[in-house]
Amino acid sequence: MKVSIIGAGAVGATLAQRVLESGLADTVLLDILKNIAAGKALDLLDAGPIVGHERSIIGTGDYSRIASSDIVVITAGLPRKPGMTREELIAKNAGIVRDVSKNIKQYAPSAIVIVVTNPLDAMTYLTLKETGFSREKVFGMAGLLDGSRFIALIADELKVPRAKVETMILGSHGDTMVPLLSRTRVSGKPVEKLLSKERLDAIIKRTRDRGAEIVGLLGTGSAYYSPSAGAFKMIEAIAKGTGETLVVSSYLDGEYGLKGICIGVPCKLGRNGIEKIIELKLTEEEKEAFYKSAQAIKGSIELL
Ligand SMILES: NC(=O)c1ccc[n+]([C@@H]2O[C@H](COP(=O)([O-])OP(=O)(O)OC[C@H]3O[C@@H](n4cnc5c(N)ncnc54)[C@H](O)[C@@H]3O)[C@@H](O)[C@H]2O)c1
Predict the structure, then answer these.
(1) Pairing mode, strands 165-166 and 185-186
(2) How far apart are CA 181 and CA 70, in angstroms?
(3) Pseudo-torsion of CA 186, 188, 193, 199, nearest 10°?
(4) Smallest CA separation from ligand 1 atom 13, residue
(5) For residue 94, what are the contacts with CB-CB under 8 A and spacing of at least 6?
(6) Which of 53, 234, 252, 297 is most buried, by the most CB atoms less than 10 A from its CB?
(7) Cα separation of 161 and 152, whole Å?
(8) pLDDT tens digit string along 218-272?
(9) How far apart are CA 218 and CA 99, in angstroms?
(10) What is residue 156's three-state secondary structure?
(11) Rounded to an integer, what is the distance from CA 205 to the centroid of its chain?
(12) pLDDT (tens digit per residue) in 38-60
């Protein structure tokens, strides 16, 4: 298995470490700043004997090195600064993602592409259009991360193990994300029976703002441990063909009554990418929030 990661910044390099040190795949780390990519790759390689894996990693600025990748992950692009929304990144990151997509199409035409660059849903749409790959092979990482943030906060509030909490967050990776309360359970019990509306609303707000909270604390850059964990989980599902259902940003062609956008929905992932888009029955309130989120994504796509 070969995984190439475009962008050797905070998310890309941390993801490279996860992929390499899990022993899952040989890894290519590519960046426009080729020496940074090369330096980080050497550093990761040198940890190999200590960690105990036999995988290879190269750092480069040369796209011919991504040839025959099974999976390519796009993390190239600017992260948010304090006070910025993800949507404000669109002008700069669209140019970068166009360039990256063109190179993936040329050098790794049979790869599955996972998009991480923000604004996530619009960048996933752009990658799909620019590569011309099928929708089963191009999708974005976000819902998994938003759901994980929600779970961490609920578990912390109720002092229960995180493994006892299940939930899903659909919609956009932005202010209009849609936590599915009808599918949020703690040890099988509906969360609304365990937390007051006031506490639950506060947790949802903190989940929504979690990225900004981290950006504010870091001062420079945005979250990368949890985003790289999300991307790694998707790579693992594909590489091992687990058939797991994860929330990813996928192009819809009639599912959920929507067409022509990428948005977070549950998808069964396997060796060929998206094997099935799962259409959940949503409550009226969730449906309304989901369509509002879709409108927000449409607005971003129109800016491309
Ligand atoms: N989907 C999510 O949930 C999620 C979570 C966190 C971050 N992100 C996004 O991921 C992206 C990367 O974040 P980061 O923290 O790693 O940023 P970073 O600044 O640390 O790294 C970005 C890297 O991209 C490189 N780059 C820029 N233009 C390039 C090009 N044309 N070709 C190749 N490489 C290029 C830069 O040199 C830099 O090394 C940002 O857009 C950020 O908003 C998304």
Answers:
(1) antiparallel
(2) 36
(3) 20
(4) 79
(5) 122, 123, 126, 304
(6) 297
(7) 9
(8) 999 999 999 999 999 999 999 999 999 999 999 999 999 999 999 999 999 999 9
(9) 29
(10) helix
(11) 20
(12) 999 999 999 999 999 999 999 99
Angle between helices 10-22 and 34-46 (to 10 degrees): 30
- Place 85 in a pLDDT band, splitting at 50, 70 and 90: confident
In the structure, which protein residues have their CB atom closer than 6 angstroms to any atom of ligand 1? 6-12, 31-33, 75-80, 89, 93, 96, 99-100, 116-118, 120, 141-142, 145, 173, 221-224, 227
Cα torsion angle, 167, 168, 172, 178, sign: negative
Give residue 274 CA to ligand 1 midpoint distance, Å: 24
What is the gyration radius of the CA atoms in the chain, in angstroms?
A: 19
Closest CA to 262 of 275, 242, 247: 247
Residue 125's pLDDT is 98
* Residues taking part in catalysis: 173
User: What are the tokens at 132?
Assistant: 């011309």
